[in-house]
Amino acid sequence: MTAFKSLTRVHSWALNEKRQKLAGIDELVKKMKKDLQHLEKELETESDAAGSSIEGTIAFPAFIAAALERRRRLRHTIGELEVSVQAAREEVHAAFEEMKKYEHAGDLEARKKQEEHARREQINLDDLGTEIHRRGQASGDE
Fold first, then answer.
1. What is the largest distance, in Å, between two alpha-carbon atoms of the chain?
2. Among residues 108, 109, 105, which one has the least CA distance to residue 7?
3. For residues 67 and 42, is the Cβ–Cβ distance under 8 A?
4. To pair with 19 at 20 to 30 A between CA atoms, which of 11, 105, 118, 128?
């Protein structure tokens, strides 16, 4: 295995790890957004229920304070995670570009080797043709 193939494999592995990290953060953002939607629905449901009974009216302010704090924390966490998603995307892009460099260099090396092989083969064929021609002239002279 050539050095470029090894480097390409290493960078491909690193790229896959970065993609998995990005996918994990992305899934967490989706979960947090779903939790936020669930909380919003819960707030609507509870505010409707709080108006229908005296006990609900008494307990509702404590619930709403906790729910609003939870919503604030969820939004803050989602914001932080979205920044992390953007950073992870940049890491994936950089790792992809790095891997492509090594793939391209490996392709160039392989093409160079193939051209060198073809050049040597042509030299051998030229030598063979020259030898056949020389022998033909030598046998014609006799």
1. 128
2. 105
3. yes
4. 105
Mean pLDDT, rounded, for 90-112:
91
Tokens of 28: 């967490």
Both structure tokens of 65: 């304070």
CA 111/CA 120 separation, integer angstroms? 14
Report domain extents, the chain: 3-102
State pTM to two decimals: 0.70
Looking at 1.10.287.1490, 1.10.10.10, 3.40.50.150, 1.10.1200.30, the CATH number of the domain 3-102 comes to: 1.10.287.1490
**Tens digits of residue pLDDT in 12-56:** 999 999 999 999 999 999 999 999 999 999 888 887 777 776 666
The SS3 call for residue 95 is helix
Q: What is the pLDDT of residue 61?
A: 82
